[in-house]
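User: Design a sequence. Structure:
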């Protein structure tokens, strides 16, 4: 299906309002699907910017539908440093008569981009838009990992309608289910009850308090390296760096933290989409939030431009192999370290019940610290967590 039927192109007067005075600014160097121009062939592009002006299923955040163009204007003014990355701005998904129509349009556009191996950078809109993105994986038959940078888990209350506060419950309960792992980065305990934390652990999900992350943002690199889908809630950032959120907080990640994490995300060679949600321009101050998010996207592109093929395969010769025998465990703990990037993985391929189904999840991103911990006869939590998933 021709995806242009689902898209509103970028108006010329919007482009002219973006203060594009230098030929190297992003707005002057990427391909823009704008009025009066046919949609170009997609096979030459690697990244696609897509706005979704939808907030009908937001949790009391009406106005977040206006975010895409506010982020886009700030992004266009930044400078393009990447001669090796071809980017297209596809404009905005047409808003449907019913919200299900918008979901349908987004799913169809995402399905087409997946066929071309183009990664969409989604500018929301409300975070429930993660749900139709996840549903696309039904047609692939592959299990996926979702990583959320968020101050909450978004599992809602019992029988709550699908919205930005409950979308994760719909993903967990959706049948057939293709969710292998969910990771939360940065939940804030005063926004999350203990039962929800216990539920995440019972489901063998990977959740990390913001205090743990703030002390060492580098520990998010393996978490982001394991994601197929990354969904970013703007409320995860402190109000001083991202005031454009209705329920903002004095605590949260800094814009610098966000830029580090999205750069890690860009380096992830298995990632298929990243989305930025819940920004509401009506609460912003001097476009601070738009600038924060646009710079996070800039660093995502930076990371993407530096990608190398460092994902393990069964017969790869690019890795050093380390085997650790622990006192109380029958199985050997196998670590892999890429000879060029220096990234570490744990090899659990020996434990897979279904090699084809779990093929993309045999190798678990980790750090050198996990290897050193194992050498001290202490089993990393993530090894046991994923071991149980594969048993």
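Assistant: Done.
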């Amino acid at each position: 299906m021709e995806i242009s039927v689902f898209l509103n192109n970028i108006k010329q007067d919007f482009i002219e309002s973006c203060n594009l005075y230098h030929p190297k600014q992003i707005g002057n160097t990427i391909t823009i699907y704008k009025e009066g121009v046919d949609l170009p062939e997609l096979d030459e592009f690697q990244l696609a910017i897509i706005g979704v002006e939808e907030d009908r299923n937001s949790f009391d955040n009406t106005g977040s539908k206006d975010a895409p163009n506010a982020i886009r204007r700030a992004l266009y003014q930044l400078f393009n440093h990447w001669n090796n990355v071809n980017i297209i701005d596809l404009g905005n998904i047409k808003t449907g008569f019913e919200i299900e129509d918008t979901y349908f349009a987004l799913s169809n556009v995402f399905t087409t981009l997946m066929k071309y191996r183009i990664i969409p950078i989604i500018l929301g809109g409300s975070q429930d838009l993660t749900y139709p993105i996840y549903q696309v994986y039904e047609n692939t038959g592959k299990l996926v990992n979702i990583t959320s940078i968020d101050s909450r888990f978004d599992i809602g209350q019992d029988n709550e309608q699908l919205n930005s506060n409950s979308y994760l419950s719909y993903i967990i309960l959706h049948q057939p289910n293709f969710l292998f792992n969910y990771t939360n980065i940065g939940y804030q305990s005063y926004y999350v009850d203990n039962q929800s934390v216990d539920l995440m652990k019972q489901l063998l999900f990977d959740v990390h308090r913001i205090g743990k992350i703030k002390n060492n943002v580098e520990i998010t690199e393996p978490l982001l390296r394991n994601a197929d889908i990354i969904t970013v809630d703007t409320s995860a950032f402190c109000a001083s760096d991202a005031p454009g959120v209705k329920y903002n907080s004095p605590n949260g990640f800094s814009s610098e933290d966000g830029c580090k994490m999205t750069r890690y995300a860009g380096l992830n060679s298995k990632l298929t989409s990243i989305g930025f949600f819940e920004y509401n321009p009506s609460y912003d101050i001097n476009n601070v939030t738009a600038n924060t998010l646009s710079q996070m996207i800039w660093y995502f592109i930076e990371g993407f431009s530096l990608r190398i093929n460092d994902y393990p395969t069964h017969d790869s010769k690019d890795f050093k192999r380390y085997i650790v025998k622990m006192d109380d465990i029958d199985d050997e703990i196998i670590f892999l370290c890429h000879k060029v990037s220096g990234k570490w993985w744990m090899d659990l391929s020996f434990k897979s019940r279904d090699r084809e189904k779990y093929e993309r999840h045999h190798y678990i991103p980790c750090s050198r610290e996990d290897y050193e911990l194992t050498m001290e006869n202490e089993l990393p939590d993530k090894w046991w967590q994923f071991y149980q998933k594969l048993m």
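The first strand starts at residue 7 and ends at 8. The mean pLDDT is 93.
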